[in-house]
Amino acid sequence: MGIERRLANLRPPWKPGESGNPRGMPGRPKKKPITAAYEAVISDPLPPGLRKFRLGQRELELPEGSTFADLIALGQCAAAIKGNTAAAEEIANRLEGKVAVELDVIQGVSLGERIRAARMRLERRSASDDDAKETAEENGAGSYGTRP
To answer: I need a labelling partner for 81 at 20 to 30 A (CA). Which of 45, 119, 133, 135 fits?
Structure first.
């Protein structure tokens, strides 16, 4: 079997610029079906019966044309007011973005230098453990960490 034949097997059977999709079928859907269903429901106008609701001791009514998204947002705000910290965190994350996590960065020290320093600390620790083991054996202890 020649090299030309093996290379020919690696090339696609279609010509440059021609699609490899035999029937012009669409690829993977951009969104999952449940996402599309949520988007359809959340943007629908609320039925009149859902526009009115109780929030604590107050009767509230959302304006005509309000959507399920409006109702959900109001529910999250009500939960946050009642002390639900997860709801408050969700609102803050949506409005301001997630809180940045601080990293401890040592200026001017490369990663390689930090790894070398960590290895040296491990070697020193290992050496001191070996010294302690020898001292214990010399004092009559059967093994490291045991008492005579």
So the answer is: 45
User: Are 87 and 76 contacting, i.e. CB atoms less than 8 angstroms apart?
Assistant: yes
| Residue 145, H or E segment | none
Q: Per the structure block, which two tokens stand in for 53?
A: 């609701």
- Mean pLDDT across the stretch 103-129? 82
Q: For residue 83, name the pLDDT band (cuts at 50, 70, 90).
A: very high
Instruction: Please say if the pLDDT value at position 88 is more than 90.
Output: yes
* Sign of the CA dihedral running 86, 89, 93, 95: positive
Tokens 């965190």, located at residue: 89
Q: CA 72, 76, 79 angle in degrees (round to 5)?
A: 135
The residue ranges of every structural domain in the chain are 35-96, 103-148
- Return the biggest CA–CA distance within the chain: 88
- Smallest CA-to-CA distance from 73 within 50, 55, 91 is with 91
Q: Is the pLDDT of residue 87 over 60?
A: yes
Burial class (CB in 10 A: 0-12, 13-18, 19+), 66: middle
